[in-house]
Amino acid sequence: MRILSxxxxxxxxxxxxxxxxxxxxxxxxQFAPGDTVDAMMAQMGGGDAATAKELRKFYGLDLSIPAQLxxxxxxxxxxxxxxxxxxxxxxxxxxLERLPPTILLMTASLSxxxxxxLVFGVIxxxxxxxxxxxxxxxxxxxxxxxxxFWFGLMAIVVFSVYLQWLPPGGFxxxxxxxxxxxxxxxxxxxxxLPTLxxxxxxLAIYLRIMRASMLEVLNLDxxxxxxxxxxxxxxxVTRHVLRNALLPMVTLIGLQAGTMLGGSVVVESVFSLPGLxxxxxxxxxxxxxxxxxxxxxxxxxLVITVNFIVDLIYARLDPRITAEG
Amino acid sequence: MDLTRLEINRRTALLTSAAIAANVINPMRAFAQETxxxxxxxxxxxxxxxxxxxxxxxxxxxxxxISGKIQENLVDLDANGQPVGVLAESWEASPDGKMVxxxxxxxxxxxxxxPFTSADVExxxxxxxxxxxxxxxxxxxxxxxxETPDAQTAIFKYERPMPLNLLLRALPDLGYVSAKHLYESxxxxxxxxxxxxVGTGPFKFVKYERGQYVIADRNExxxxxxxxxxxxxxWRVITDRSAAAAQMEAGELHYSPFSGLxxxxxxxxxxxxxxxxxxxxxxxxxxxxxxxxxxxxKELSDIRVRRAIAHAINVPFFIENFLGDFAKLGTxxxxxxxxxxxxxxxxxxxxxxxxxxAALLDEAGFKAARGGTRFSLRLLxxxxxxxxxxxxxxxxxxxxxxxxxxxxVRNDGGGFLKQVYDExxxxxxxxxxxxxxxxxxxxxxxxxxxxxxxxxWTNQWGWEDKNVDKTIDDAATEVDxxxxxxxxxxxxxxxxTELPVWMPIEQIFVTTxxxxxxxxxxxxxxxxxxxHDLWLSA
Lengths: 325, 538
Known about the structure:
The structure holds two protein chains of two kinds.
Chain A: H1 2-31, H2 36-44, H3 49-58, H4 65-77, H5 91-126, H6 131-145, H7 148-162, H8 180-218, H9 221-228, H10 233-270, H11 276-285, H12 289-317, H13 320-324
Helix pairs in contact in A: 1-12, 5-6, 5-8, 5-10, 5-12, 6-8, 7-8, 8-10, 9-10, 10-11, 10-12, 11-12
Chain B: H1 3-25, E1 41-46, H2 61-67, E2 75-77, E3 83-85, E4 88-93, E5 99-104, H3 118-129, H4 136-139, E6 143-147, E7 153-158, H5 164-174, H6 180-183, E8 203-209, E9 213-218, E10 232-237, H7 241-249, E11 255-256, H8 263-269, E12 275-278, E13 286-293, H9 303-311, H10 315-323, E14 327-329, H11 354-363, E15 377-381, H12 386-401, E16 406-408, H13 413-422, E17 428-430, E18 432-434, H14 439-442, H15 466-477, H16 481-498, E19 501-508, E20 511-514, E21 517-518, E22 535-536
Parallel strand pairs in B: 1-10, 15-16, 15-17
Antiparallel strand pairs in B: 2-3, 4-5, 5-7, 6-7, 8-9, 9-10, 11-20, 12-20, 13-17, 13-18, 13-19, 14-19, 21-22
Helix pairs in contact in B: 1-10, 9-11, 15-16
């Protein structure tokens, strides 16, 4: 019951935020010079003024800006995300097609970053200032400082061009039709490089956070108590330290779910994955307002959901949080 | 000027240009004796997805590269750039130029089995080419009707004389036919067939997964005997140019059209025996780099200032160091690849001469103030290609040297078109002028006055010249080919004198293709054609 009321309050609080975000993005895009017809002309390589005028009418751009915004919000109330001018079909179905690759990529690389960040963070904290710690921290810094497109391209050059172990791009093999487990394996092989590319950058952050919070918790009184009552070090770390040190990591996941959606534009482009990031980029360039707003809406929903789950995990990790909430 | 950077570019350009030249000279490597092999899948790099795929309502290479294999045009260009019939077998113009009769090929069926007839041509011409197709609506402005006395004859009637050589050179791009029975009812733009094209071509549309790929399979009932050779064509959507180059190397792609790779990757792959990197097969898609002047700026409305700016920029140096063999010195709006209309280089030109530039500016009354500055300008480069970005920086540095500081304002595609051609919020702009085989298609609009505000790639400079307007109008309706050529030579002379737009560089798109491909790049617009004779050796 308490969880449900918590959920209700969270959702109620996020609705005004969502509407503000949508209006903000709508207005922001009005400041960008050119509209979707200009973008289309650019893509076609030219056209006459009469064509342009007719197209503007076709896309509903002959209305005033407040009228366009009003129309949009009114449609949104009826859960209609509108019509995409690049794709010529409802925005909802365009986004739905693009959602699976994005979510797959996001969960895979977040899990990768979280798991290895945790493991390496713990190792580094336990041997702090000795060579394994220095090695892990340095590598983490290098990963963090390297741009992801470069990582991606180098991964393609090494693993696809020279070694030919993994496919250089795409979401699945087009040549042969696979079903069931074979299709899943095929998609998985296509996602290995993108996941590593996206995950390595976040790995560095998780690793450093984990190391720092481990070090902090290791110095607390109750850890000394645990050691004093004769527990061995592994037990102290896994049972007592880890659980408390995890809190900042969980916070970070909530924050980064949003970044991951945006950060994947580069990785999706390099690996030619049909994800939300590329769709968002394309709709900005093409000034496809409906699609862009639809993506903002869906991303906001995703972020809200992830943060809600994070809240639940907090409560599980630290019972005091629910008691106070 | 930043000499160290230029030096590095110069060295790499020279090294790579030698390798490219070797391929340009002998791109086909003579495989005449080989027996054509049936079968195989041809993978194509598809860089920029379009909103729809019907070439009857959108004239752009991004559409032709796919639908040019599925739908066919009335006429195409042969290896020598001369019109050759595809869906049309023969044609004839009346002496007054107001009537053009096309005889259509017999026994052709659409991919859905229905017969192709003159009714399809009539419907497409009147409802798509004349009303929706970009450039088509200008070309067919005076088309009044298409008469169809029988299923194999289409008679185009014009209010004003239509030069036959203009129509035949425009139709390869602007003459794709769509099936009447699929478009008759409803809004043409929203017709679902636009994303699942049905045509008469050698390949049948199979599937389009947005953001991923398009697939087309061989048409067993194709009208040309023994064609096509390939089983399947797959277009892979890859937006990242470097990733596309890596996919070429990994063997996932066979062909990257229209300069789809970065200049450095083109140079690198041209040294690789597995690929052919060449401008051959793209002669019909020539373009020139522009420098557009806004006459609303008092300084730029002075012809001496425009000439001074042209004299201040060392174009041969720029081409040699930055573009290498992919470009050559341009001499005006009609490129040298256009054998039917090129007037030769003996029109007014503006060779590099810094002293002359300074003298012209002094004469115009824009003497250098203290600190050497005369006046400053805003330059808007189009975002279409690397070369434009380099060219705009080169302009900035060159004009800086004669006391004109230039601020570069970058936009994306929609923003650039809006600011330059609609809001006129520029002093200088630079981009590409696409030449489409006849100056009347997309070239003279850059100079003819009276263009509606907001029409991209047209005269939005605030410049008007009655003589030039007259030359353009006369040439557009002149039916005698020799007289037409002379009129266009006069046009080039006039606009090179007045210089509302300067077009000093000529470029042709670069193709990267696997060395296993045969019968490729054998026509001037090969990337857009049907590939009925293309095959892959084992």
